[in-house]
Amino acid sequence: MRRKNQFAAVKSGDMETINQILDSVQAQPATFEEYLDCYADRVGGLINSYIPEGTHPDMDRYLYGPLRQYSDNGGKRHRPLICFAACLAVGGNADLAMSAASAIEHFHTAALIHDDIADEAELRRGEPCLHLTEGLGLAINMGDLALSLVNGTVMRDPMLDDATKVRVVTELVEMTRRTVEGQALDIGWARDERYDITPADYLEMATHKTAHYSGAVPLAIGAIIGGGTEAEVEALRSYGLATGLAFQIQDDLLNLIGREESTKKDFRNDITEGKRTLVVVHALGALDGDDRARLIEVLSSRTKDPAVLEEAVCLMERAGSIDHARSYAEELTAQAKERLNQEIPQSTARDLLESMADWFVHRLR
Q: How far apart are the first and last CA of the chain?
């Protein structure tokens, strides 16, 4: 069955709106994790309605269908949900943020598809990666399609005025550039076997690669669409940068010391790929002699041997690097929450965003 036009559906009431979804839960979620658990699946359905269908059956077979199936396995949907929360936190109408929130999630889909190809990964969200199930060429093409949905989704939204569209798309373009810059550093350092990377270098890379699109831009866009003041927009952007960076640091930690069955992707593949995480660069600076040489040897080997990977983790623990990364992420979020409470008026939405910081650094997947 061909899907109805998503914009007409939202305006005519044929499809649940975000406000209807948020109002449908009897007891409002008290924590950010409950917020994600309550709404992720239903919001995911709306987001996927922005994936069109082709004019030829084989377009659905080789492009739209697999991409939609991949997006159906969409995880926690935290990026669109924080966009809605930011919109509500400044007193806005969350329905107006639907296209922008979907655009950010489709960018995330594209980034994951391309990232898995670059990393030669095998698992994503507990399932084989798209380039393994559909082939490299088709997976690249699906990632490109997801990217093409980003700006067009916003520009075709009849519920937003032209000035808001231009401002939101400008945010999305800048978000894309910064993410690609961070990815270039991440891949390039591993390719060139750079072991002179400092913690400051890592923080610059991770801020670009993750913090903008996983925190800062969803919050800023939500506030823009919600009619927030410039001070509120920038306060939420700053909060998103700090918590988004903490999110990436926690991701790095989970890859090393999380429960293997709960990571839903290749466990400890950051070591296999020689990634310069905060844990790694701190360890390279703290270790010396044979220990440092051995860690470099493992990072250069692309090994998947569990015993060798465990040895590398033990070296990082011995250097105090895992504790250092965890403490840094917790300090980031504590400071960010203080600034948020100073700039954004108290509300249920602000409380959820404050709770988000704790979830970012204590989550298990």
A: 35
- Could you tell me if 202 and 276 are in contact, meaning their C-beta atoms sit under 8 angstroms apart? yes
28 DSSP 8-state letter: P
Alpha-carbon gap, residue 360 to 243, rounded angstroms: 7
Structure tokens at 70: 């991949």
One-letter amino acid for residue 104 of the chain: I
Burial class (CB in 10 A: 0-12, 13-18, 19+), 364: exposed
pLDDT over 70 percentage in the chain: 93
Phi, psi of 34 (to 5 degrees): -65, -40
Look up tokens 């002699």; give the residue: 289
- Whole-angstrom CA distances from 81 to 42, 65, 259 are 11, 24, 26
Query: What does the alpha-carbon distance between residue 216 and residue 233 come to, in Å, rounded to a whole number?
Result: 10
Q: What is the pLDDT of residues 240-255, one digit of tens each?
A: 999 999 999 999 999 9
Contacts of 125 (CB under 8 A, 6+ apart): 73, 74, 75, 264, 265
Residue pLDDT, tens place only, 286-319: 999 999 999 999 999 999 999 999 999 999 999 9
